[in-house]
Amino acid sequence: MKYEWRKQEKDLYIPKQKPELVTVPEQKFITVKGKGNPNSEEFSKRIEVLFSLAYAIRMMPKQGYTPEGYFEYTVYPLEGLWDLTEEGRKLDTLDKDELLYTIMIRQPDFVTKEIVDRAFEIVRKKKPNPLLDEVSFDTIKDGLSVQILHIGSYDNEPQSFKKMKEFIEENHLEIATLRHREIYLSDARKVEPAKLKTVLRYKVKSRK
């Protein structure tokens, strides 16, 4: 049976449209960093390189190599960690050119550095991409977090962040870092803005 994150990890990937508290365990990711407007071609190229590696890992058994512990699974969705430059933080309105981001795709637990290295070799042969040199394999643990399902345009996310901040305040918590996470459940190239589904997440800690 195929492992599907939408079904098996609903608590992490399919939250409600109201803020909720969740504990996110340690997870493995292939990641790439960048700066600037996410509507740029450079951002699209970074997404492309991540998915080419993610699919190279998933398709390994069809290439004649089955990693130890491998199981059939659906490739995880694209995620992003978002922050602003010092300059961007001083501005009253969001300047997308001042955004700092790490975009990434989660990997199943059986994935090791050796498997990722093998995926790099496959992609280098099939579809060489200079951005491959910027990709890392990382382990990230969000721990205690507040998340919400945002439906609609990315530009309307402040409405959902406001609800999250109110929830955090009411529950005697505080945001642990200015960086927030977004998990993209929709493909923005195929879904109209009003129907986009995005998980928004803040790492939080108890207020002292």
From TrEMBL:
<dbReference type="InterPro" id="IPR008319">
    <property type="entry name" value="GyrI-like_CCH_Lin2189-like"/>
</dbReference>
<dbReference type="Pfam" id="PF06445">
    <property type="entry name" value="GyrI-like"/>
</dbReference>
<dbReference type="InterPro" id="IPR029442">
    <property type="entry name" value="GyrI-like"/>
</dbReference>
<protein>
    <recommendedName>
        <fullName>GyrI-like small molecule binding domain-containing protein</fullName>
    </recommendedName>
</protein>
<dbReference type="InterPro" id="IPR011256">
    <property type="entry name" value="Reg_factor_effector_dom_sf"/>
</dbReference>
<feature type="domain" description="GyrI-like small molecule binding">
    <location>
        <begin position="18"/>
        <end position="199"/>
    </location>
</feature>
